[in-house]
Structure formats: structure tokens, C-alpha cells
Amino acid sequence: MPPSCDCLIYIYMYLYKYVYTLERCSSALHDHHQHEAVVWRVRSSVCRMPLGEDGNGWKKKTTDIKEHYDFKEVLGTGAFSEVVLAEEKRTQRLVAIKCIPKKALEGKENNIENEIAVLHRIKHANIVTLEDIFESTSHLYLVMQLVSGGELFDRIVEKGFYTERDASQLIHQILDAVKYLHDMGIVHRDLKPENLLYYSMDEESKIMISDFGLSKIEGSGSVMSTACGTPGYVAPEVLAQKPYSKAVDCWSIGVISYILLCGYPPFYDENDSKLFEQILKAEYEFDSPYWDDISDSAKDFICHLMEKEPLKRYTCEQALQHPWICGDTALDKNIHESVSAQIKKNFAKSKWKQAFNATAVVRHMRKLQLGTSLEGPSQITPTSPCHGHLLPEEEEEEEEDDLGN
């Protein structure tokens, strides 16, 4: 059966996330002579595992992919790749296929192989999965699970009834999936509402975590200290360019929980320097009247996740044991009117796409003398109402105008 019009609309709107973009950046290569070079880097995992040795024995298929799949509409395009809607011939099942020209990856094959290895390890009901890999003489094809239910915030706005308990159930699913990742030694590093998609248009559809372009395997040969993620959701230790751990994902879940209960971010300022200072100090409030009808249990839950000190911050396992998640302290009062109004005000699509002054942030971080990352300084591109997307690659000031999707 072909997909419905509504389904196709959602697919077109939301599956652009799978477009694999290659972004220009430069890198300061620090050796005895402080040589500098401009490099092209794949936006991917930076883990260092042997190719094809991820424990699952994954192997690319070299048969013609079109013998197995009928390619249909293009869902999205990037500078060096495109994603197409496809139907598996044997089962008539719809999938999303990311098509990456090999020319775009010349000299960087190891990076994409590493990301594939990370994705291939992940098998969880609430995580978008990599289902198959094909290789031709000219392209690499990643067959991805298709999700067509739309983004988290859009579904909340569309609801007529929304409660704390609804938010609690959403966060429960996210915590369970992220705990699975952490148990596998994988840190997502870019959890945010835009990366949380509904599996289908069904009212009771599950939530899915997507976009593992910034994922990292702990203990894979380098210390995590690269400033990556999205500032509105990123932990203080990441902005401070300190070595960090999987606790950064727990902070992000705390920020998402905060927004789900009020409709606006805990950290916001038109001035980029002040925004960073708020996050670095972990300064946030439960403002009246927006939080007046929210339970103390919900606030306590958020405070344990949005704890400045990583060692004191709740782990996913601890968060799953909190009464607001596993007990009956989440309230059933309808908070839809207030939350949806704030979401529409603060997370409008136009704001998500606004250009962001990357230069200002980089200069601010240098001014604060936050130090040099062991993996390299941050790189920033626009994506979020809470400002830019910090990519895990190095850059030089003169190259910052080239950043962006």
C-alpha cells in the first residue's frame, strides 16, 4: 500500500534529518611548529574502532540495491548526499535510504565506517536503526528505519489534552533508550527535541531517538572534551571544554523535561555571552505562573538532572527510579493550553532556521579562556531556538562564515 498524503507530508518534513551533510571546517594541527591546515571532516562519530569489527560482524552488501528496493521520492538533499523514500520489493515495506557519493568521502572513508559501526550496534525499540548497508562502485547506501510520526513539539501542540503524566511517559521512553546507549558505552551528545521523532501518526505512537552524527563511544581511545551538541541543551562541562562523560546526555534530558512542562527553554538570552554564562553557572528558575500547576516532584526530578556537577547528576538508572517516572507523582491536570502556547512562541519553525552568529560565540569562549579541547575547539552552525549547533570538529576564525547547513 502506498503511504497516505498525510504520512508523506510528515516524511518530507522530518526525514531531512537523515541527510548526511559534509561541512567545511579548518583545523589547527598543534605540533612542534604549530602548523595549520584546512581539512574536510565528515560529521560523524569520532570513535576509533577497527573497521568491520564492532562485535556484530556487519558487512556491506555489494549487490545492486535497486534489485531489493524501489526508489521513490527524494526526501531531502544535502551538499554531498540525499535521502530517498524507498519500498522493499520483497515486503513492500517503506524505508529511508541515505545515498552518499564515494567522491564526497575520498580520504575520509574511515569516518563513515566508524559511524556505521556505531549505528549497527544499536538495537532498541525507541532508537532509529540502521537496517542495511549497500555499496556500489560510486555510492554508499544506508538503509534506515522509516519514522513518519513527526517531531515531538508539533505533536504536543496538536494535542487537545496534555498532562505531566504524558510528559513523564515520554521522558521514561527517552531515559530507557539512553540508558541502553550508555550501557553499550555510547554517548549521544546531541539530545534535543528536534532529534525526538514519533514512530508513526498513531495516537499512542512511541518516541524515537534519531541523529547519531555526534555520537561517541566511551573509552574509544580519546578523552571526550570537544564542545559539541546544541548550546540550549548542552551541559556546563561541555561549554567549559572540560573532559566529560555520559552525564552530558542526562543534563540534556533534564532540559528537555523542563521544556515539556512549560514550553520554553530554561536558558535563553538574546545576548550570546549571557546565554553561555547562564548555562555555565546552571542558572535557571521555575517561573510563575508557568510552573504554578507543576508538581514539586517534577521540579525535583529536573533539578537532579540539571545538576551542575556531573558526579552529583542523576544517571539514567537513577532517573528511572525517581517517583515522577516510576511512581504516581506526575499530575493529570491538563496543561496543554499554557505549554502549547509557549512552544509556539519559543520554538517556531522560523526561529529554528534563524542564522546564528558563530563568530561571536567562538570569540566569547576564547575570551573566557576556557582552554583548548583535547579533541579540538568547537564549531557552530544554526539549528535551534537556543542558538547554534556545536559540531565536533575544529575551525579557524576566518572559516566561520562557511559554517552552516
TrEMBL record:
<keyword id="KW-0539">Nucleus</keyword>
<keyword id="KW-0547">Nucleotide-binding</keyword>
<keyword id="KW-0832">Ubl conjugation</keyword>
<dbReference type="Pfam" id="PF00069">
    <property type="entry name" value="Pkinase"/>
</dbReference>
<keyword id="KW-0723">Serine/threonine-protein kinase</keyword>
<keyword id="KW-0067">ATP-binding</keyword>
<dbReference type="InterPro" id="IPR017441">
    <property type="entry name" value="Protein_kinase_ATP_BS"/>
</dbReference>
<feature type="compositionally biased region" description="Polar residues">
    <location>
        <begin position="373"/>
        <end position="384"/>
    </location>
</feature>
<keyword id="KW-0963">Cytoplasm</keyword>
<keyword id="KW-0808">Transferase</keyword>
<dbReference type="GO" id="GO:0007399">
    <property type="term" value="P:nervous system development"/>
</dbReference>
<dbReference type="InterPro" id="IPR011009">
    <property type="entry name" value="Kinase-like_dom_sf"/>
</dbReference>
<dbReference type="InterPro" id="IPR000719">
    <property type="entry name" value="Prot_kinase_dom"/>
</dbReference>
<dbReference type="GO" id="GO:0005524">
    <property type="term" value="F:ATP binding"/>
</dbReference>
<feature type="region of interest" description="Disordered">
    <location>
        <begin position="373"/>
        <end position="405"/>
    </location>
</feature>
<dbReference type="GO" id="GO:0004674">
    <property type="term" value="F:protein serine/threonine kinase activity"/>
</dbReference>
<keyword id="KW-1017">Isopeptide bond</keyword>
<keyword id="KW-0524">Neurogenesis</keyword>
<dbReference type="InterPro" id="IPR008271">
    <property type="entry name" value="Ser/Thr_kinase_AS"/>
</dbReference>
<dbReference type="GO" id="GO:0005516">
    <property type="term" value="F:calmodulin binding"/>
</dbReference>
<feature type="compositionally biased region" description="Acidic residues">
    <location>
        <begin position="393"/>
        <end position="405"/>
    </location>
</feature>
<feature type="binding site">
    <location>
        <position position="103"/>
    </location>
    <ligand>
        <name>ATP</name>
    </ligand>
</feature>
<keyword id="KW-0597">Phosphoprotein</keyword>
<keyword id="KW-0112">Calmodulin-binding</keyword>
<dbReference type="GO" id="GO:0005634">
    <property type="term" value="C:nucleus"/>
</dbReference>
<keyword id="KW-0021">Allosteric enzyme</keyword>
<comment type="similarity">
    <text>Belongs to the protein kinase superfamily.</text>
</comment>
<keyword id="KW-0418">Kinase</keyword>
<dbReference type="GO" id="GO:0005737">
    <property type="term" value="C:cytoplasm"/>
</dbReference>
<protein>
    <submittedName>
        <fullName>Calcium/calmodulin-dependent protein kinase Ia</fullName>
    </submittedName>
</protein>
<feature type="domain" description="Protein kinase">
    <location>
        <begin position="69"/>
        <end position="325"/>
    </location>
</feature>
